[in-house]
């Protein structure tokens, strides 16, 4: 995969992809490049205004694009269910699900269903979405599921006794735990898909340090102007552009030979062409993955009935 870039994406003609958080940053670039390669892309975004603006921009940049906007708020399980129901009603094939949307180091908050925001959006929302879309994915030959984690997963393993941070909240630890949850989810999902005899590839990716609005969202919410400016400075001087940050996702989503449970990231850790990435050993723990899966089913009320336990 040395030097792999968006020009190496195989033809995606005839394939349908859903990309969450596709209105900006890595999600937008992922959706745009999949559409450029011929896929029909659904931009699943929380904000209708930003989602429709992104769709218009995509069509300007890729005139032949086949793309659509659909509302999806991963912090509200009712919205997740509505999105999945609309996809089922449309009865379109689903070749690729990119679980890209996320939040980072926000002040303490709760989702519409009462979950700690980072755990609720980054993990539980995507767990529910993937489960609800699983019947369509299972019907599609060579389908893939790509979930976005982060190198910051190394900040913390999960505390299975306090998934919702009831005993105290530290924003970066909570973020690290949500990204560990993403990797444990992919690990357990891969195991269950294999046990069910499915050919679906579930893989994970991380962008390294990419210049997006993810870094500044938390400081801006709290009015921490200095912190926001420092993040903006880092984005300008150190970070790679979103076009580079999207490459590990695009590789995991489209390149031949991607193995189940792979973790793809930039070659240098923070930037560079995509390659297999280091991950903490705890993200490969079968027991921890199964415990998180069971808890996620109980919290969301979503059960993957078609996959063996």
What gap, in angstroms, lies between the N and C termini? 34 Å
Tell me about the biggest sheet? 8 strands, mixed
Structural class: alpha/beta
| Broad shape | globular
Overall pLDDT: 91
- How many beta-strand segments? 8
Helical proportion? 40-55%
Question: How big a fraction of the residues is strand?
Answer: 5-15%
The strand line-up of the biggest sheet is: 3-2-1-4-5-6-7-8
Low-confidence stretches: 215-220, 224-228, 230-235
**Over all CA atoms, what is the radius of gyration?**
18 Å
Number of helices: 10
Q: Oligomeric status of the shown chains? A: single chain
In short:
With 309 residues, the protein is α/β, with parallel strands linked by helices. It is built from 10 helices and 8 strands. α3 runs parallel beside α4 and α4 packs parallel to α5.
List the helices and strands and how they pair.
Layout lengths: L15 E5 L4 H12 L3 E6 L2 H14 L4 E6 L5 H14 L5 E4 L17 H22 L5 E5 L22 H25 L5 E5 L8 H9 L2 H13 L4 H4 L1 H8 L8 E4 L7 E3 L9 H15 L9
Parallel strand pairs: 1-2, 1-4, 2-3, 4-5, 5-6, 6-7
Antiparallel strand pairs: 7-8
List descriptors:
single chain; 309 residues; alpha/beta; 8-stranded mixed beta sheet; 10 helices
Describe this protein's structure.
The chain has 309 residues and is an alpha/beta fold. Helices cover 44% and strands 12% of the residues. It contains ten helices and eight strands. The protein has helices at residues 25-36, 48-61, 77-90, 117-138, 171-195, 214-222, 225-237, 242-245, 247-254, 286-300; strands spanning 16-20, 40-45, 66-71, 96-99, 144-148, 201-205, 263-266, 274-276. It has an eight-stranded mixed beta sheet with strand order 3-2-1-4-5-6-7-8, with helices on both faces. Strand 7 (263-266) and strand 8 form a beta hairpin. The longest helix has 25 residues, at 171-195. It is globular, with a radius of gyration of 18 Å. 53% of the residues are buried.
């Amino acid at each position: 995969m040395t030097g792999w870039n968006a020009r190496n994406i195989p033809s995606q003609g005839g394939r349908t992809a859903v990309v969450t958080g596709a209105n900006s940053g890595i999600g937008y670039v992922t959706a745009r490049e999949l559409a450029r390669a011929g896929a029909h892309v659904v931009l699943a975004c929380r904000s209708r205004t930003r989602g429709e603006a992104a769709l218009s921009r995509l069509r300007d940049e890729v005139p032949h694009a086949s793309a659509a906007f659909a509302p999806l708020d991963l912090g509200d399980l009712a919205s997740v269910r509505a999105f999945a129901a609309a996809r089922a009603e449309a009865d379109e094939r689903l070749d690729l699900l990119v679980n890209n949307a996320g939040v980072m180091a926000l002040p303490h908050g709760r989702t519409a269903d009462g979950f700690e925001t980072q755990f609720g959006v980054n993990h539980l929302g995507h767990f529910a979405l993937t489960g609800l879309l699983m019947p369509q994915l299972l019907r599609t030959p060579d389908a893939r599921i790509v979930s976005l984690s982060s190198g910051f997963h190394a900040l913390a393993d999960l505390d299975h006794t306090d998934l919702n941070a009831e005993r105290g909240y530290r924003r970066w630890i909570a973020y690290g735990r949500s990204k560990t949850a993403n990797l444990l989810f992919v690990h357990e999902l891969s195991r269950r898909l294999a046990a069910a005899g499915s050919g679906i590839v579930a893989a994970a990716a991380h962008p390294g340090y990419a210049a997006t609005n993810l870094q500044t969202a938390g400081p801006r919410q709290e009015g921490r102007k200095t912190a926001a400016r420092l993040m903006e400075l880092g984005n300008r001087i150190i970070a790679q552009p979103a076009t580079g940050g999207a490459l590990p996702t695009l590789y995991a989503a489209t390149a031949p030979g991607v193995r189940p449970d792979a973790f793809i990231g930039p070659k240098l850790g923070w930037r560079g062409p995509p390659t297999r990435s280091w991950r903490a050993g705890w993200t490969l723990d079968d027991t921890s993955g199964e415990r998180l899966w069971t808890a996620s089913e109980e919290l969301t009320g979503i059960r993957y009935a078609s996959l063996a336990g």
